[in-house]
Design a protein that fits this description.
The complex is a heterodimer of chains A (421) and B (335).
Chain A lengths: L1 H20 L1 E7 L5 H15 L3 E7 L2 H14 L6 E4 L19 H15 L9 E14 H7 L10 H15 L3 E5 L3 H10 L16 H16 L4 H4 L10 H5 L3 E7 L2 H8 L6 E3 L13 E8 L6 H11 L2 H11 L6 H6 L8 H13 L5 H8 L3 H16 L5 H19 L2
Parallel strand pairs in A: 1-2, 1-3, 5-6
Antiparallel strand pairs in A: 3-8, 4-6, 4-7, 4-8
Helix pairs in contact in A: 2-13, 5-6, 7-8, 7-17, 11-15, 17-18
Chain B lengths: L1 H33 L4 H28 L17 H7 L13 H32 L6 H13 L2 H12 L4 H8 L11 H29 L3 H9 L4 H29 L3 H6 L11 H9 L7 H33 L1
Helix pairs in contact in B: 2-13, 3-13, 4-8, 4-10, 4-12, 5-8, 8-10, 10-13, 12-13
Classes of the chains: A alpha/beta (421), B mainly alpha (335).
Chain lengths: 421, 335
């Protein structure tokens, strides 16, 4: 009896010591689709191999959790140990430099190099994290509606005006409520605007909104909303926040949906083969046929009390074979140069998903330099959010286009001035 | 069972006596030290501390933030700019035309909030009073109806907003009803006028139960003999309402008015979930302006948000003082 009791007591003490010695890291996460499940499985594998570290995933809403709450937490010196973020430049001052803790920084520079600049403070050579996905914006179409309408899907370089006309014809022929929908996002609008010739910056690199290219694109949006081509529930029906237009597309209520590559995983699950959906190349304007690059990164947070442990988690997740599995299962475009070149074995049998990923990949070389500059600009959300909200006021008649452009510039200048104080 | 009840009662008594004795061990020496007269302040101290830390201190800090600029979160890192935030906030060529104002969204929010408060509070008082008058009468299933009107008060504002969003949206219940009656669907949430009307209606529906309860209590405190005397004198029900009910209910009405006004000005959650402040800025209220300026942008403008909240607080304070004075003069007139 005594030896058994002593053994049990010893086991209890050892377990307690292990629990006490275990470092618990918190990771703030958001989901576009099912990637949280994949990440959790990878972390479970890491924990099994590294019992001294436990990673707790806090999955939060994208807008309220990642865009609004997280920056405040970080500014207050609080927050998680790791986070999946999209505002790479804006939060760069709060990110942990993993370089001193990495066993092979050269691997990171070689494979994540161009994207590291998006997350670094200016002039820094820090390695804060890696891209969980590279994204490209481009339109999705409901191919089944085109087939039902007996209208051919345009091929070759096609303008936004032509796409709008064709989508409207399909909508009328099939009784679909609206021809098009776009995410309520300045980022989504920026690609088409750049195609129309919008420059977004002056010669000194300061944000300058009003030019012929942007006006042309904004006028198209105004006309589409006025004519009923564009689903109004997304841009007009909401205010002051990001709203995705995915639900009308998933429910086959629109013909064309301007969004991006992060939707592929979600559509694979939620649409599946309910109807044929595919991605089409970005429509063209006088200046380009471009979408917007973007993405999300998993980063370490500078305020963490466990930088070495954070680096161990990151090194595990950034391994080529681990990332290949992550990208393959989540259907995300790889933000790893080596894997992008070698190719990813995307784990889907759905033809729509495979086609979509191939088209998105083909759009990457066509991304305009202005789009890269805008995505890499530290205060790009200031531009995107003001563009979005002021344009909505034009849709409902609160402002004219001239007044809206004037207000956008004034809002951007004021916010950037505040940031400089 | 009775033995169990007796034992439980004795146990509870014993625990109470024990706790009071422990309490007394601390309080009696303290009372001898500071005196009986000062003991009430000691009992008030915990609440005052909580009030000071969680209400008074943040108010003072907010006032400081309103006179500073920049994006730093910590007060010591924020540059002092005096009244610059207030000057920017109030810079307008025409206060009735937000387009002419530097902070046009603030003034849109002011206009929207003024309309919302005027209609919502007015409607709330009227409907709550009417409901309380009906519920004060001997009607069938009075208890049931008293509960039913209170149920929406128990719901979370987010739940209320989501339910009504499902009713009002393009393919919602209301449009299904309209289409079924052979009418055209109405885009309630895409029209500025409809959106404002619905947030007023929904907030009245969600909150009237609370005020009805207060007014009902006020009605029940009016002595019935006054109505009997009025009936004997041959007064009509309208006259009894005007000369007995209204004057005696006035103190309660003032409380309801102040509470409704404060709550109305602070409206945010239901509107944010239902319309997000849209379409455009048609239902963009003051608290949403403060939230979006201070928290929902990449570059938060804490100073401007604080200045707006100080303005809001000052207006509420003035409105409350005016109401209290009016209420007191009405009570003196009644006496």
């Amino acid at each position: 009896m005594k030896p058994k009791f002593l053994t049990a007591l010893l086991t209890l003490v050892l377990l307690a010591n292990t629990a006490l010695a275990q470092v618990v890291l918190r990771m703030t996460w958001y989901d576009d689709g099912q990637e949280g499940v994949v990440m959790r499985e990878l972390l479970d594998r890491f924990e099994a191999a590294n019992p001294d570290i436990r990673v707790v995933m806090d999955t939060v809403p994208f807008a309220a959790g990642i865009l609004q709450s997280l920056p405040l937490q970080l500014a207050a010196g609080q927050g998680p140990d790791l986070a999946r973020i999209v505002d790479l430049g804006g939060l760069s001052q709060y990110l942990l430099d993993l370089r001193p803790h990495l066993s092979d920084p050269d691997y990171w520079e070689a494979n994540f190099g161009p994207f590291l600049d998006w997350m670094r403070p200016e002039g820094s050579d820090a390695i804060p994290g890696f891209m969980t996905q590279l994204t490209v914006s481009a339109p999705f179409i409901n191919r089944t509606l085109f087939d039902q309408a007996g209208i051919a899907v345009p091929e070759g370089p096609t303008t936004w005006e032509q796409w709008a006309e064709v989508a409207q014809q399909v909508a009328e022929a099939t009784g679909t409520p609206h021809a098009m929908v776009m995410d309520r996002s300045g980022h989504r609008l920026a690609g088409p605007a750049i195609s129309q010739g919008a420059a977004f910056f002056d010669a000194e690199g300061h944000p300058k909104i009003d030019d012929a290219g942007l006006r042309a694109m904004l006028q198209l949006m105004i006309d589409w909303h006025a004519d009923g081509l564009m689903n109004p529930d997304v841009w007009i029906g909401a205010a002051g926040q990001y709203v995705a237009g995915n639900l009308p597309f998933i429910n086959a209520q629109v013909v064309l949906y301007m969004s991006g590559s992060w939707q592929v995983g979600q559509f694979t699950n939620l649409i599946g083969d309910a109807f044929d959906w595919e991605v089409v190349p970005n429509p063209c304007g006088p200046a380009a046929c471009t979408g917007m690059p973007g993405g999300a990164a998993l980063v370490g947070i500078a305020a963490t009390r466990h930088p070495a442990e954070v680096a161990r988690v990151m090194e595990f997740l950034a391994q080529e074979e681990v990332l290949a599995e992550f990208y393959g299962r989540t259907l995300f475009i790889p933000g790893h140069l080596g894997l992008a070149e070698a190719g990813i074995d995307f784990q889907t049998d759905l033809e729509s998903a495979k086609q979509a990923l191939n088209v998105f990949a083909s759009q990457v070389p066509l991304i305009h330099p202005t789009a890269y500059a805008l995505q890499g600009y530290r205060f790009n959300r200031v531009i995107f959010d003001n563009l979005r909200d002021r344009l909505t006021q034009v849709f409902v008649g609160e402002l004219t286009l001239d007044q809206a452009l004037e207000r956008m510039q004034a809002d951007i200048d004021e916010q950037i001035r505040q940031a400089g104080q | 069972m009775s033995i169990l009840a007796t034992l439980s009662s004795k146990l509870a008594q014993g625990v109470y006596v024990l706790l009071m004795n422990i309490f007394g061990l601390v309080m009696e020496p303290l009372q001898r030290l500071i005196g009986v007269r000062r003991m009430p302040y000691l009992f008030l101290l915990p609440n005052l501390l909580i009030f000071g830390i969680f209400i008074l201190f943040p108010m003072v800090l907010n006032l400081y933030f309103a006179t500073t600029s920049g994006t730093a979160l910590f007060p010591q890192e924020r540059p002092f700019v005096g009244t610059a935030n207030f000057e920017r906030l109030y810079a307008c060529q025409d206060y009735f035309n937000p387009v002419t104002c530097q902070e046009d969204r603030f003034w849109r929010a002011v206009h929207n909030t003024t309309v919302f408060v005027a209609l919502q509070v007015g409607g709330m008082i009227l409907i709550s009073l009417t409901t309380a008058l009906v519920l004060n009468r001997k009607i069938v299933a009075r208890g049931f109806f008293r509960s039913v009107y209170f149920y929406p008060v128990l719901l979370s504002p987010v739940v209320v907003a989501l339910i009504w969003k499902w009713i009002l949206q393009r393919d919602g219940l209301l449009n299904a009803l309209l289409v079924g009656l052979g009418q055209e669907p109405v885009q309630f949430l895409l029209s500025g006028t409809w959106a404002m009307a619905w947030i007023i209606i929904i907030s009245i529906w969600a909150e009237m139960g609370f005020y009805t309860l207060i007014l009902l209590a006020g009605l029940q405190s009016i002595p019935s003999e006054l109505y009997d005397a009025g009936a004997v004198d041959g007064t009509s029900s309208t006259q009894r309402f005007r000369h007995i009910t209204l004057p005696l209910l006035m103190p309660t009405m003032m409380v309801v008015l102040i509470l409704a006004l404060i709550r109305s000005v602070q409206q945010f959650d239901k509107v944010f979930v239902l319309t997000g402040g849209g379409p455009g800025t048609a239902t963009f209220l003051l608290v949403q302006y403060i939230y979006s300026t201070g928290f929902a942008t990449q570059i938060p403008r804490f100073g401007m948000a604080a200045a707006a909240s100080v303005t809001l607080g000052a207006v509420l304070l003035i409105a409350t003082i005016i109401q209290l004075r009016l209420g007191r003069s009405s009570e003196r007139h009644l006496a």
